[in-house]
Write a structure and sequence with these properties.
Layout: H1 11-33, H2 39-53, H3 56-66, H4 70-74, H5 93-107, H6 122-149, H7 157-173, H8 178-184, H9 200-205, E1 209-210, H10 215-223, H11 226-233, E2 256-257, E3 261-267, E4 273-278, H12 281-300, H13 309-318, E5 325-329, H14 339-345, H15 350-359, E6 363-365, E7 377-378, H16 390-409, E8 416-418, E9 421-425, H17 426-439, E10 454-457, E11 460-463, E12 466-467, H18 477-486, H19 489-507, E13 511-514, H20 518-525, H21 530-536, E14 537-538, E15 548-549, H22 552-555, E16 562-564, E17 569-579, H23 587-597, H24 603-607, H25 612-620, H26 628-637, E18 652-661, E19 667-671
Helix pairs in contact: 2-3, 2-20, 3-5, 7-16, 8-12, 12-16, 16-17, 19-20
Length: about 675
């Protein structure tokens, strides 16, 4: 397929070769689907990794695991300053190697959500944290109002910084455009209140939920889409009618009025869950539009929220001797955005503030309370995780705060902001931290690094310019069971095996893989059946996880790999996971997805949605009646409705494809570590 000889094959030979490739891909997918994952896979590899590291900390982790002291294990901390012999001697490499190994040993199971212990109560911990954030926001609201009413009582020095933030925020946001807001509205990846699934077609056909304050605009938002209108109204005429006869059709639908947020939790780690406030569906649709607009305005100001690399690069620079950049992290920043703070900062951008107020929620239902009117509590915070513009809003606030403080201390050094990840000079940080505390944002001392050789930002950890980022095992029992159910467990385990190989590669500074971790990697890949393991090997890649990465020479031992010497490349199998809802044989979701994506780009396609009333009848009849015109429509869009196979299908399926790989020029062989 990639060699010169392949291009001279006869058509019949090419067809036979293609058929063989498809057959092998199917066999490999079937074999991969039979791989079952358990928690023991991860625990077994963790024990081997600790043995390979062979440090006092890794031994302590192993003993705590064996003794069942899970609370102590997940609460262990690795403090960079403890690995410095003196304040002047922080760059010596030996301390860095010891920290790197202990950091990895400590972090490996720190996020493991499956530990159960008498001292671990993730539900209560999450609830306590969320309640504390609301309490802190109430205190912030009072503090801000008191300072504005009588600056002489204290904290008046911060008013100048706040006014500077106001100016920067108004300048960046600029003029508010309602049309741009409507164009940027979209569905998010998760589920909102009243939505039973995460696919677009499921959200499109769900009964729309909305707050009372937003109901008028929500009706206009839905009315802007013919597909959405007919999905929620369950009406429509046959598409064979002329366009002029259906333009004046009246659609009737109703909303589910939601008083506000509903507090929910998702697994985070063994210590605590992550609190999320589920928002009404149409509100989220509009909130995401505002978030996208703020993101675009920040990008115009030089802050690209779609790229974390600048933050990572600046953190690396800050870890070098003589640099002044420090990294700051805040504790639960999204839940500490106080209502009065946003009102104050956006005074000079009133149209933006009005739009955010319209689609935000102003009350919430605490954990465990019944859905009674008296149980809904007014929000002291402005927005939290679950709101579609929270991330962009908090980034804007912290960006403006850093700029205001930098101007005060006359700092001209580089700075970056990504959510609550802040990088700035030490001089700016000394003034910024108490200012942020006044604004209601507590410091996360465990992840803030103001001195020493270690810096952490946006998933990158550096000690003296060297990448010491550890790997984490954080797969929940539910995720393991789901992967086993859908036959995609092999993909997760390939990711784990590849993460161990890359960890060994980074430990050796890219000069081959550190052989210290070779037993751990072999322990991981040995869990994969031999015939499957041999067929998944592929050339080294710094980022790919759809096959088992190895050295170029080892990859060529894969019986399914075909090498082309002339092009110096290889054709190798790769794993893919496909959503069953995207299947062409699944009539209803495929049709809904097609219509939703083409709702404004192709009016002819959109008109097909007027068969929805017929679809409803089709769902309830054993032998549906299909008109010749409808059959023609089905052939145009490639859909094949079959009785008994028209319900939305959810889930995932493992597939195998083929791809051309080339060596990347890096030495991925196992060798002793370079000191």
């Amino acid at each position: 397929m990639t060699s010169k000889a392949a291009y001279s094959l006869s058509p019949g030979s090419r067809n036979r070769k293609s058929s063989t490739a498809r057959q092998r891909a199917k066999e490999l997918a079937d074999l991969g689907s039979g791989f079952k994952l358990t928690s023991d896979h991860f625990i077994d590899v963790a024990k081997q990794l600790w043995a390979d590291l062979n440090t006092p900390r890794s031994l302590a982790c192993h003993l705590l695991l064996e003794a069942g002291e899970y609370a102590q294990l997940v609460r262990l901390k690795c403090v960079p300053r403890n690995y410095l012999w003196s304040d002047q001697d922080w760059g010596r490499p030996c301390g860095g190697r010891q920290f790197r190994d202990d950091y990895q040993a400590t972090a490996l199971l720190a996020k493991w959500p499956n530990f159960q212990h008498a001292d671990l109560d993730p539900v209560s911990e999450c609830q306590t944290s969320d309640d504390a954030a609301e309490k802190a926001c109430r205190a912030t609201n009072k503090r801000l109002l008191s300072t504005l009413e009588d600056p002489s009582k204290g904290n008046s020095a911060y008013l100048h910084l706040i006014f500077q933030m106001q100016a920067d925020i108004a300048r960046v946001l600029g003029r508010f455009c309602p049309h741009s807001w409507l164009e940027n509205m979209r569905f998010g990846p998760g589920k909102a209140s009243g939505q039973k699934g995460t696919h677009e077609y499921e959200k499109l056909s769900a009964r729309p939920s909305v707050t009372a304050d937003f109901i008028d605009l929500a009706a206009g938002v839905i009315s802007s889409s013919t597909a959405w209108l007919e999905a929620v109204s369950n009406s429509g005429t046959d598409p064979i009618l002329p366009q002029s006869e259906v333009d004046g059709e009246v659609y009737k639908f109703d909303f589910a009025i939601e008083p506000g947020d509903r507090c929910t939790m998702v697994p985070k780690n063994a210590k605590t869950h992550r609190g999320i406030r589920a928002q009404p569906g149409v509100n989220v649709f509009a909130q995401l539009g505002l978030g996208q607009m703020i993101r675009a305005r920040l990008q115009q100001a030089g802050l690209d929220l779609d790229d974390q690399v600048p933050n990572q690069d600046l953190a690396k620079l800050g870890s070098l001797p003589g640099r002044t950049e420090v990294t700051i992290d805040l504790k639960g920043a999204s839940g500490h955005i106080a209502r009065e703070l946003v009102k104050l900062l956006c005074e000079t951008a009133p149209r933006w503030l009005h739009a955010m107020n319209l689609c935000r929620t102003d009350r919430y239902l605490p954990y465990g309370n019944s859905d009674e009117p008296q149980n809904w509590v007014p929000l002291a915070s402005y927005s939290a995780m679950g709101n579609g513009f929270t991330f962009e809003l908090e980034t804007l606030i912290f960006w403006a705060a850093v700029r205001a403080v930098r101007q005060k201390v006359q700092d001209t050094g580089p700075y970056r902001v990504y959510g609550d990840d802040i990088i700035c000079s030490r001089a700016t940080a000394d003034e910024l931290i108490p200012f942020l505390a006044f604004l209601g944002f507590p410091l996360n001392a465990d992840k803030t690094f103001l001195e020493g050789p270690f810096r952490e930002s946006c998933g990158a950890d550096y000690w003296h310019g060297i990448n010491v980022r550890p790997i984490h095992f954080s797969t929940s029992v539910e995720e393991i069971e789901e992967a086993n159910e859908y036959g995609t467990s092999i993909v997760r385990w390939v990711q784990v095996s590849n993460a161990l190989r890359r960890l060994a590669f980074n430990r050796n500074h890219g000069l081959g893989c550190d052989s210290v971790l070779q037993p751990c990697w072999r322990r991981a890949v040995s869990r994969i059946p031999g015939s499957l393991r041999k067929s998944l090997k592929g050339p080294w890649s710094p980022c790919r996880d759809d096959y088992l990465i190895t050295s170029w020479a080892d990859a060529l031992t894969n019986p399914l790999v075909r090498q082309s010497a002339s092009l110096h490349c290889a054709v190798s199998p790769r794993l893919t996971v496909r959503s069953l809802a995207d299947s062409d044989t699944n009539f209803l979701p495929s049709k809904a997805l097609l219509l939703w994506r083409a709702r404004e780009q192709n009016r002819v396609t959109v008109r097909f949605d007027r068969t929805r009333s017929w679809l409803r009848q089709f769902l309830t009849k054993a032998e549906p009646t299909v008109t010749p015109f409808q059959k023609q429509v089905h052939s145009w869009v490639g859909l094949k409705p079959e009785p008994g196979d028209i319900r939305p299908r959810r889930g995932l399926a493992l597939r195998v494809g083929w791809e051309v790989f080339q060596p990347v020029g890096e030495d991925a062989e196992w060798r002793l570590a370079v000191l």
